[in-house]
């Protein structure tokens, strides 16, 4: 199994933006990284009217689209229970590190992203799985490492030391 860690925080704090900045830094260090993004709503990556959409709408259990640059497998849950994070990890190709965005209630190590301007409470006091806080201000994290949110190189270094240097 690859090393797994995630980013937790309320909507609008910059989780996706930070991950987008971290990926080229980590990949530049020779780390093969995959990402799992948990969505809390009924999302769709398909386009109505396209062949794959029509196949799913007609009842296909899975539709795999493949081309010379990428492929995607869409699996319709229909009346099945949403897979766990562990089950989804088992579907990924081999890699060194999996970054998880979301699944904030699942137990695995996370970095909380917090912005005072967002007006939401911090998660770390109630979540023992948070191992650091990335923030755009100086705050007291009660002994947890405080990482500068706007300095992705520092956050990447923390990730490498904490999750990949065993």
TrEMBL record:
Protein name: Molybdopterin-guanine dinucleotide biosynthesis protein B
Gene: mobB
SUPFAM superfamilies the record matches: P-loop containing nucleoside triphosphate hydrolases
Superkingdom in the source lineage: Bacteria
CDD domains recorded: MobB (cd03116)
Residues covered by the Molybdopterin-guanine dinucleotide biosynthesis protein B (MobB) domain: 4-136
InterPro entries: MGD_biosynthesis_adapter, MobB_dom, P-loop_NTPase
NCBIfam families named among the record's database cross-references: mobB (TIGR00176)
